[in-house]
Model the fold of this input.
Amino acid sequence: MSDFLFPVTPVTSIEVDGETAAFPINRIFCVGRNYAAHAVEMGGVPNYEAPFYFTKSPKHAVRSGATIPYPLGTENYHHEMEFSILIGAPAFRVSEEDALDAVYGYCASLDMTRRDLQANSKANRQPWDTAKDLEDGGVFAKATKVADFGEVGTQRIALSVNGEMRQDATLAELIHSVPAIIHDLSKFYHLNAGDVIMTGTPAGVAAVVAGDVIHGEIAGLAPVELTLTAAE
Ligand code: MN
Done:
């Protein structure tokens, strides 16, 4: 048994439908601009060649239903509704054909983003970390095992704020599919149980403010919810 100099922060985790044990989060990878209409609204062009990635610290994950204060250091905090892949088995240099063997399940999630800082980072050719990897910046709903979800197809993915629809698309609009993402990411990382991949957001990202209630849905999965309170 190791001794540590100060208390170790808890492992964050995702609830799983039908299980009393939770899915412990090892790493969080995020795909950028994986829906064409979102790439356009971000001022870019869709890239069909290969996905690109950024990461979030697993320490910054919270569960659906959380109430969090409006974050520090931003005046333009955006919601991004996303379909997340939970990895349950080793995957390294896997083919697209074998990629789904590594999937444990899926969940609805939010990639919360300091959009003003992201825009500034892009303009100055700086990394996105403070825009994307912020405290409480990844929100994860209860997951569904892959066998209970079935194939990823034309399931609706949508998000509303205070009951007003903001994002409304289907998983058929993913530029890079679930197997394509796992195949590609496994060229760079030894993916393994506990890794989570957020697959990108559809068009319609927008700002939220203190008092807002965010509600995201993907057909066949538990909804994801987040409430924002006043800044600390
Ligand atoms: Mn995103």
Observations:
- The chain has a mean pLDDT of 97.
- The chain has one domain: 13-229.
- The radius of gyration is 17 Å.
- Residues 30, 80, 82, 111, 200-201 surround manganese (II) ion (CB under 6 Å).
